[in-house]
Backbone:
């Protein structure tokens, strides 16, 4: 699986993957996390322009899309019902979505992110049991609860590997 930066030409395929992911979330008991067509194309264009959007390609087809960036996330400044594992510099993973056709592709992207920077934070909706399972299977620790821009809560996870770049 090749992971590369997203291009504007990838947008139609990416939007299709997000549609598939929203449908999957609804079927698995998580109908509200990405309600209303989130993420919108405008946000994806912004992610691409900032250089923080990535895709995983398998056999010439995009299988996974995600946002990855090293640096602080404003929504992670306050954590309740727990604490982050450390206060060291970290990277964030957001909006990961898969076509659902290549087993383990989400985990491969998470491992790629950790290889770029070994301190990774991510959050997910309380009803997104599939993502919670993937994170825990990949060695993430549940750290507490954060609140995103719209005020809704998310479960916060972090993994810190011993080697730092």
Residues:
């Amino acid at each position: 699986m090749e992971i590369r930066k997203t291009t504007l030409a990838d947008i139609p395929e990416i939007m299709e993957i997000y549609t598939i992911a929203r449908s999957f979330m609804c079927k698995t008991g998580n109908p509200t996390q990405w309600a209303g067509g989130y993420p919108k194309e405008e946000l994806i264009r912004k992610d691409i322009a900032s250089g923080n959007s990535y895709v995983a390609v398998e056999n010439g087809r995009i299988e996974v899309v995600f946002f990855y960036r090293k640096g602080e996330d404003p929504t992670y400044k306050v954590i309740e019902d727990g604490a982050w594992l450390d206060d060291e510099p970290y990277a964030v993973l957001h909006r990961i979505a898969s076509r659902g056709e290549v087993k383990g592709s989400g985990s491969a992207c998470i491992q790629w992110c950790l290889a770029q920077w070994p301190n990774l934070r991510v959050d997910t909706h309380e009803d997104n049991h599939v993502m919670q399972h993937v994170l825990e299977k990949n060695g993430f620790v549940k750290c507490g609860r954060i609140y995103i821009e719209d005020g809704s809560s998310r479960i916060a996870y972090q993994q810190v590997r011993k080697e730092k770049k």
Notes: Residues 43 and 116 are 23 Å apart (CA to CA). The chain has a mean pLDDT of 95. DSSP finds four helices and seven strands in the chain. The first helix runs from residue 11 to 27.
